[in-house]
TrEMBL record:
Gene3D superfamilies: Monooxygenase component MmoB/DmpM (3.90.56.10). Keywords: Monooxygenase, Oxidoreductase. This is Multicomponent monooxygenase system protein D. InterPro entries: MOase_MmoB_DmpM, mOase_MmoB_DmpM_sf.
Amino acid sequence: MSLELTLETILDKYQIMDLSKLPQNMVGPVLMKDEFSYAVVEALARDNPNTFKGVLDRGSYIRVVGERELILNKTTLEEVIGMDVRFPGEVEVRMSAFAGKIIVRGDYIKWHLDL
């Protein structure tokens, strides 16, 4: 990994502490806790500066919170992780659920709501 990504660094940067601030139009993946998933969170934060709201620590997993739309680009994830990624497969095996609708392509994953 090109960055030091741990649960602690991700939570320090992105954890949502006030649940009353969760968006009504929430979208995003639920991910297992591992270094790759932390890279996914970092990539989502970079790619979505206006809609990425943070993460919720749920014990055995983390929920990524976005408002209306989140896009994970393969190129950004590879920049964060510092190597080629089998995409979208490496993301899908770590994603147990998601909020919103999902579009999966070879170069991006999009979670969104049609409003």
